[in-house]
From TrEMBL:
Pfam families: Amidohydro_3
Keyword Hydrolase: yes
Keywords: Hydrolase
Protein name: Amidohydrolase family protein
Residue ranges of every copy of the Amidohydrolase domain listed in the record: 37-455
Gene Ontology terms, MF aspect: hydrolase activity, acting on carbon-nitrogen (but not peptide) bonds
Superkingdom of origin organism: Bacteria
Length: 471
């Protein structure tokens, strides 16, 4: 493929030749007999965006589920109406629930809302499910050994399931979903790669990813994080083994020595450890682990939701990259302001102060627990406002260039920024205008084309749904 008249770094306009999966040449008036030609007409050519933290299977299923949390659902009456009006038969699956709507749900509350079919509602943290009585009966009928996370009180099932997604999938006799809806959405936003961060990922999940890529359902390159069972995953250009995922829970922190041993085993596999840290206690625990072992290539902190001054100093000392989710400020900031003491607000979802301290940052969506659109994340990083328009740590705002850079980090080396340069992979995101015009918009509708491995996989000739027309 030959891309003509593309804006490159620094504002220069030139031609870019893609061949054999890499950028072969950059210059003026390049020729390539028989090559597909795309006229960029001065639009900015970027490396393809990379979502550094998401959950593909859950995102695919969420697209077929009923929203049960803000902003669509804000009250218990909203939830009852949403569940009552949901069409179909069999399992009714809801996602995105938050305690502010009706507290911690149980089967009695859900029975009052919908009792004629089995219902399961996922908390937006991803850590728990709530079932009505019909749902509990369906799970018990599977005949599997019951997990510790299926809650009982006074000998009766409450309808709550904590941290047992693998057991739930087995009980439902579920098969992994097709990834085509997610792959297509990401292409439309210029995303050519993703890091899949589900902690239970093992050989079966790797096989499903490979099959979906082979079928064309998931065009993106994938860095697959997960369990230690990924040790034997063969290296492929489009599916590579990522870090060991350690998912901490503040109230049930794992055994110290066993966790250190798991991290050592990951290092023997040539993998770092990615530690889920959404509270101060979890981050302190993670820092203690890295202090004892010393940092290694591939180690990283996921989320970094709460980073106090003292913990920031430790992160800098250990040179640990942090993978952030800027969109949470926009979609959850009002709830944070309501639930969290004002004295703690400066520690929440920091960005600019982390970069100023010298930390390496990258960004992911955490989809489906956050919006999948990377342009919404960039906009949130720049604006730092809640859904109600309230400023949220404005001193933490990034420039548009710094926000974009969060999605241009090399997934295998977060400290390296990918570039449009000879020898780099031919994965590109073409905007419909120069960067100086695009930087004030940061909308998905700016993406004109997406190229993966030198092949044009998405092209837009009209504004995306919901986007303003582009002049």
């Amino acid at each position: 493929m030959l891309i003509r008249r593309a804006e490159l770094a620094g504002g220069a306009v030139g031609d870019v030749l893609l061949a054999d999966g890499v950028i072969r040449a950059i210059g003026q008036g390049l020729a390539a007999d028989g090559a597909v030609t795309l006229d960029a007409a001065g639009g900015c050519l970027l490396p393809g965006l990379h979502d550094h933290h998401m959950h593909v299977a859950a995102s695919s299923v969420a697209l077929q589920s009923v929203p049960c949390g803000p902003p669509e659902v804000a009250t218990a009456d909203d939830l009852a109406r949403t569940l009552a009006e949901a069409p179909g038969s069999g399992w009714l699956r809801g996602v995105g629930y938050h305690d502010s709507i009706a507290g911690l749900l149980d089967r009695h509350v859900l029975d009052a809302m919908r009792s004629d079919r089995p219902v399961r509602v996922q908390h937006r943290s991803g850590r728990m499910w709530f079932f009505n009585s019909a749902g509990i009966e369906a799970l018990l009928a599977a005949g599997l050994p019951l997990p510790a996370g299926l809650e009982q009180r006074d000998g009766a099932w409450t309808g709550r399931l904590f941290d047992e997604d693998r057991w739930l999938r087995d009980a439902l006799a579920g098969t992994p979903p097709p990834f085509a809806p997610v792959g297509a959405a990401l292409l439309g936003w210029g995303v050519t790669g993703l890091t899949e961060m589900s902690p239970a990922n093992a050989a079966a999940e790797a096989d499903h990813f490979a099959a979906q890529q082979a079928a064309g359902a998931l065009p993106q390159r994938v860095l697959l994080a997960g369990s230690l069972a990924l040790a034997g995953l063969p290296e492929r250009p489009d599916l590579a083994r990522g870090p060991f995922k350690l998912h901490l829970h503040e109230h049930h922190l794992p055994d110290w020595e066993a966790t250190l041993q798991a991290m050592r085993q990951a290092r023997e596999q040539g993998r770092g450890t990615a530690v889920h840290c959404v509270s101060e206690a979890e981050l302190a625990f993670a820092i203690g682990l890295f202090d004892e072992l010393g940092p290694a290539a591939g180690d990283r902190i996921e989320h970094g939701s709460v980073i106090s001054a003292g913990l920031l100093e430790a992160l800098v000392r250990l040179e640990l990259p942090v993978v952030v989710q800027p969109t949470f400020v926009a979609v959850r900031g009002d709830q944070y302001h309501a639930d969290i003491p004002a004295a703690d607000w400066p520690s929440l979802y920091r960005l600019a102060s982390l970069q100023a301290a010298g930390l390496v940052l990258a960004a992911g969506s955490d989809a489906p627990y956050g919006p999948l659109d990377p342009w919404a994340a960039m906009r949130a990083a720049v604006e730092r406002r809640t859904a109600a328009g309230t400023p949220f740590g404005p001193a933490e705002a990034l420039t548009p260039e710094a926000a974009l850079a969060l999605f241009l980090a090399d997934p295998r080396d977060l400290g390296r920024q990918r570039r449009i340069a000879v020898g780099e992979p031919a994965d590109c995101c073409l905007l419909d205008r120069p960067w100086q015009q695009a930087r004030s918009r940061l909308e998905a509708g700016l993406v004109r084309g997406t190229i993966v491995g030198g092949a044009l996989r998405f092209v837009r000739s009209e504004p995306a749904p919901g986007q303003r027309p582009i002049a």
